[in-house]
Amino acid sequence: MSNKEIAKTFQFLGDIMELYGENPFKIRSYQNAYLTLRKLDRPLAEMEATEIAAIKGVGQAIAEKIRELLDTGKMSTLQQYLDKTPDGVQEMLRIKGFGPKKIKVIWEEMGIETIGELLYAVNENRLLELKGFGEKTQNELRQQLQYFLKSRNQFHFASLEAEGQDILQKLQTALPGVKVEFTGAFRRHANILESIDILVGSTAGLDAQLEALGLQNWQVQADHCSGSSSNEYPVRIFQCSAADFGSKQFKYSAAPVFMQAFLEQNPGQDFRDIAEETEIFKKAGLPFIPAELREEPWAIVQAKTTGVPTLLETTDIKGVVHTHSTYSDGLNTLSEMAEYSKQLGYEYLVISDHSKAAFYANGLQPERVLSQMEEIDALNKTLAPFRIFKGIECDILNDGSLDYTEDILAKFEVVIASVHTNLRMDEAKATQRVIKAVENPYTRILGHPTGRLLLSRQGYPLDHQKVIDACAANGVAIELNASPYRLDVDWTWIPYALEKGVMISINPDAHSKQGIHDIHYGVLSARKGGLTAAQCLNAKGVNNFVMWIESRTQ
Ligand SMILES: [Zn+2]
Ligand SMILES: [Zn+2]
């Protein structure tokens, strides 16, 4: 063990003890040990115990800990703290420039225990109410967290999208006349990715182009080369001849189970050396199946029987549903949210601030609900024909009931019911709780059904089939939360929802004007499940939307 590693262990010990509010003098002595040990010019591993203890600022107790570290690779004092500290909180301590004081507040006051939850809280402006967290701190923290997550080699689609587009365009420009396209899971718009994958229809060397792009650390693998982008995201470049492009693009783009089903349906067929991907489908006697549907075998069955659906487009979305304003935890005012939505060409906005139980998000007490409704009435007069709907993101309480009395619930035009607290439930409890909320006559949309945060929180287990059945029976729509960190309901449940006639609503859950653009990610995910405009709730124009929300009360 090097001096540097030993020094860092003491630094970490000091930090973790500060988290528990331990004796400041002890903490100081470990911080000093860190400073002393890292500057030492002789390896501690080669020194006698007495020599170590004689180092200025070390002393007997610290010398013993160094010895223990050198002999066993561990330090029992530190281990005690590690045992009672969640892994995610330990990770937070390792993030540069963050520090135990702030982590203590976040962990104790907000119960946040993973980096992903923390990133999500930052994106929802949750930290602004805490002492010591201004907007600047929050933005710095966001960058540090994103950087941290990057180092784990799994990424939200949204993290790689812009970088991928940039590399693709530059390669296309650098290689005129050569086909250059996204491939792999990236082309399928998978929610979670490991790399940006690109297929180049030329076997000529690419060294010069890759260097010009600032791509680094290239390694040649069996059928591709891999490296990292200038922002250190993993990139894989596959190459093939132009004559083989269609075959290779088909091969790399398909998920394994899809490919298996496809080949089983076409025994003995040779799909090699085909330049155009469309020719492969012709040869198989199938209509063209878009890449994002090449996940599961049902897409092949569907293509054969009813044909490939015309998938939902972002331009099909007519209204912005599920948004927050400064009334609860949004960054922009109600009128800013409405004007921006109107400016983007949407016909309506469903404002849905948090309900009163969400005290951490400044949830609305009944009197604030009423004053917001007055403001909506006034704004609707000036913004017409654009319309703001009086909505609420109403907490589903622990017993499945909603967070307001009936007289208040009856005043809302759109109630989105969501679970935000007591997320640790088994499947039976969670399913029962959610179904009870779905059966509530005021509920119109079930918000983020599992509460998951991609790459950081699994969400509670849910019997999706039962919940979807309940939505069908009660005329409730299911949200596909379009935040790229949620994408909840999972797209794999869309086919079942559609089979049951349940509408899917693509909801940005926007906590700022910019957040509205997340609709894009919701649409990409919904397409994977075969969603069409006809079955998407907020693809309805304003009049049809009104008819739909009123249909339950009649
Ligand atoms: Zn929510
Ligand atoms: Zn929300």
UniProtKB/TrEMBL annotation:
Keywords: DNA damage, DNA repair, DNA replication, DNA synthesis, DNA-directed DNA polymerase, Methylation, Nucleotidyltransferase, Sodium, Transferase, Ubl conjugation. Residues 50-69, 90-109, 125-144 form the Helix-hairpin-helix DNA-binding motif class domain. It catalyses: a 5'-end 2'-deoxyribose-2'-deoxyribonucleotide-DNA = (2E,4S)-4-hydroxypenten-2-al-5-phosphate + a 5'-end 5'-phospho-2'-deoxyribonucleoside-DNA + H(+); DNA(n) + a 2'-deoxyribonucleoside 5'-triphosphate = DNA(n+1) + diphosphate; 2'-deoxyribonucleotide-(2'-deoxyribose 5'-phosphate)-2'-deoxyribonucleotide-DNA = a 3'-end 2'-deoxyribonucleotide-(2,3-dehydro-2,3-deoxyribose 5'-phosphate)-DNA + a 5'-end 5'-phospho-2'-deoxyribonucleoside-DNA + H(+). Its EC number is 2.7.7.7, 4.2.99.18. InterPro entries: DNA-dir_DNA_pol_X (IPR002054), DNA_pol_lamdba_lyase_dom_sf (IPR027421), DNA_pol_X_beta-like (IPR002008), HHH_MUS81 (IPR010996), Hlx-hairpin-Hlx_DNA-bd_motif (IPR003583), NT_sf (IPR043519), PHP_dom (IPR004013), PHP_phosphatase (IPR050243). GO terms for cellular component: cytosol. One of its GO terms (molecular function) is phosphoric ester hydrolase activity. It is found in: Cytoplasm. Residues 319-398 form the Polymerase/histidinol phosphatase N-terminal domain. It comes from the Bacteria. Residues 1-295 form the DNA-directed DNA polymerase X domain. GO terms for biological process: DNA repair. Repair polymerase that plays a key role in base-excision repair. During this process, the damaged base is excised by specific DNA glycosylases, the DNA backbone is nicked at the abasic site by an apurinic/apyrimidic (AP) endonuclease, and POLB removes 5'-deoxyribose-phosphate from the preincised AP site acting as a 5'-deoxyribose-phosphate lyase (5'-dRP lyase); through its DNA polymerase activity, it adds one nucleotide to the 3' end of the arising single-nucleotide gap. This is DNA polymerase beta.
